[in-house]
Amino acid sequence: MKQVWSPDVTEIADADVVVVGAGSAGCCAALAAARRLPPGRVLLIERYGFLGGTSTAVLDTFYGFFTPGSEPRKVVGGIPDEVVSRLDRAGEMILRPNSYGAGTGVTYNPERLKRIWDEMMAEASVRVLHHVLLVDVQTTVDGRIQSAILASKSGFLQIQAPYWIDASGDADLCQLAGYPYEKAGDIEPAQTLTTTFRMANVDLHRYEREGGKSMMHDRMKAAKGLPRTKGSAHAMVVEGCIATVAVRVAEVDATDVVALSSAESEGRRQAFVYEEFFRAEIPGYECARIVGLAVGIGVRETRRVHGEYRLTRKDCLEVARFDDRVLLCGAPIEDHRMGSSGQEETLWAYVPGGNAYDVPYRSLVPINQTNTWVVGRCFSATHDAHASCRSMGQTMSMGQAAGLAAAICLEQDIWPKDISVPFLQESLRQIGAVLETPNEIADIQHWTASKGALP
Q1: Strands 145-152, 133-139: parallel, antiparallel or unpaired by DSSP?
Q2: How far apart are CA 421 and CA 308, in angstroms?
Q3: Is residue 94 part of a domain?
Q4: In this structure, is residue 108 part of a structural domain?
Q5: Which of its termini does the chain have fewer beta carbons within 10 Å around, N or C?
Q6: How far apart are CA 313 and CA 297, in angstroms?
Q7: Do 179 and 34 share a domain, yes or no?
Q8: Residue-range definition of the domain harbouring residue 410
Q9: Are 145 and 168 part of one and the same domain?
Q10: Is residue 3 part of a domain?
Q11: Which of 45, 46, 267 is nearest to 161 (CA)?
Q12: Structural domains in the chain (count)
């Protein structure tokens, strides 16, 4: 008979709300819930030793706060605004106007952002567990999550809670609970992966004098041997440093540990190919060096949970309105993929009229389940809609809505599907969330002016 291994499990104090994953969505979820509940009743678990997920491990820019185009509107508010305001007061952010792509970005120092997330969690009395990995979930017969098992340096830990928020990015909580989902690549091609890198000692003044972005793009197109002849490099908050989105690793199932491990190595290889190219071909980069690689390769999509509603391409491009909206999105569909002949492609489709569509509460509630929300890039959407609504401005707003909903459900002893949506919406407005597209054009030169008084 096969020996079954049964590890010793230590029970740790229970919580009212457990948030799995401390990326931008999970952090905002934990804060929104904790600020409404007694101290210490929200537990946030994270595999890395710092908070922020992609916002601190991979990127240095929040997109999605503003609609793109010549008449930008600001469509994100509340806790996300507070995060940026703290960066602004520390002198660690700039607005990076961009009439194309996802619109104006909020570029920041990711190392400072790590500390700001720490400070905000401590102020809200959120209990944080770093260096833990979710490995199992126990559910009731009807699918309600009762407890979870974490692997840690202290051994295996068990936590219990009445409410759960999956902000893991890969829908790990929902997958282990047996909830239905679509895996990227099953229908449409999965979006490509990117290892970002940062370079120091760049002479940006010379770079701009020699033609800047258009010159770089022309030289990339003419180059031989580059893994990809498109991509971007932008100035960071730190003088003389740039950050990139250039590497592209395609056809990877990022839920397959063998494939993901290979992608990590390939992403780093490509990064140093670009370093060599920049130093040899781009004026101002002659003395530049890579000084930082993404903590892990940037993954755009893996599992997308099936919710009570799935956001669609039609919703994005026809500017859908929903009675149960809990956030807005004006970002275009930005689909990073490989073409049918293996060529690199980024497919774009813009929300018409510089507008913003509604994202419904139902897309954050897994279908036919009772005590769970799903936020961030694993929320309920089709491939195309996900390629629009995965910007961090939107994922932060999802977390904010789900965290607030969890606190309300606890107060009223109800399940997620039974919540009064008008009450949730009014509660969101009270903390600064934007649920209607503003009439006024945003000032994208100055953060304070774009959002009003700082909190």
Answers
A1: antiparallel
A2: 14
A3: yes
A4: yes
A5: N
A6: 27
A7: yes
A8: 10-187+302-451
A9: yes
A10: no
A11: 45
A12: 2
- State how far the Cα of 79 lies from the Cα of 132, in Å rounded to an integer: 25
Q: What is the CATH number of the domain that holds 391?
A: 3.50.50.60
Does residue 4 form part of some domain?
Answer: no
Same-domain check for residues 55 and 113: yes
Residues 222 and 337 reside in one and the same domain: no
Structure tokens at 361: 């509460």
Which tokens hold the place of 298? 């940037």
Q: How many whole angstroms separate alpha carbon 166 and alpha carbon 379?
A: 9
Q: DSSP H helical segments within 101-167, as ranges?
A: 110-123
Q: Write down how long the chain is.
A: 455
pLDDT averaged per 10 residues in sequence order, the chain, 455 residues: 64 92 98 98 98 98 94 96 98 85 92 98 98 96 94 95 98 97 92 97 97 95 89 94 96 96 98 97 98 97 98 98 98 82 76 95 96 98 96 97 98 98 98 96 90 51
> From start to end of 252-411, where are the E strands?
289-293, 303-305, 325-329, 333-338, 344-349, 357-360, 372-374
The answer to whether residues 179 and 166 touch, using CB atoms and an 8 Å cutoff, is: no
Dump the DSSP string for 384-443: HHHHHHTSHHHHHHHHHHHHHHHHHHHHHT--GGGS-HHHHHHHHHHTT---S--SSPP-
Residue 284: left if φ>0, alpha if ψ -120 to 50, beta else—which one?
left
282, 207 contact by CB (below 8 A): yes
At what angle are helices 392-412 and 24-34 packed, to 10 degrees? Answer: 30
Here the tokens at position 192 are 């490509």
Retrieve residue 386's tokens. 């996900």
Q: How far apart are CA 84 and CA 454, in angstroms?
A: 10
CA 393, CA 388: separation in Å to the nearest integer?
A: 11
Supply the DSSP symbol for 454: -
Q: Is the pTM of this model over 0.70?
A: yes
> Are 336 and 265 contained in the same domain?
no
Beta strands in 193-343, from DSSP E residues, in sequence order: 197-200, 232-235, 242-245, 289-293, 303-305, 325-329, 333-338
- Between the alpha carbon of residue 349 and those of residues 107, 140, 302, 384, the distances in Å are 24, 42, 21, 9
Residues 204 and 162 in one domain: no
**Bridge-partner residues for 329, per DSSP?**
357
Distance of alpha carbon 110 from the chain centroid: 14
- Cα 405 to chain centroid distance, Å, stands at 19
Other Cβ atoms closer than 10 A to 287: 11
> First vs last Cα of the chain: how many Å apart?
63
Give which of 260, 272, 269 is closest to 296, Cα–Cα: 260
Instruction: Give the pLDDT of residue 100.
Output: 60
Q: How far is CA 122 from CA 79, 127, 432, in A?
A: 15, 8, 21
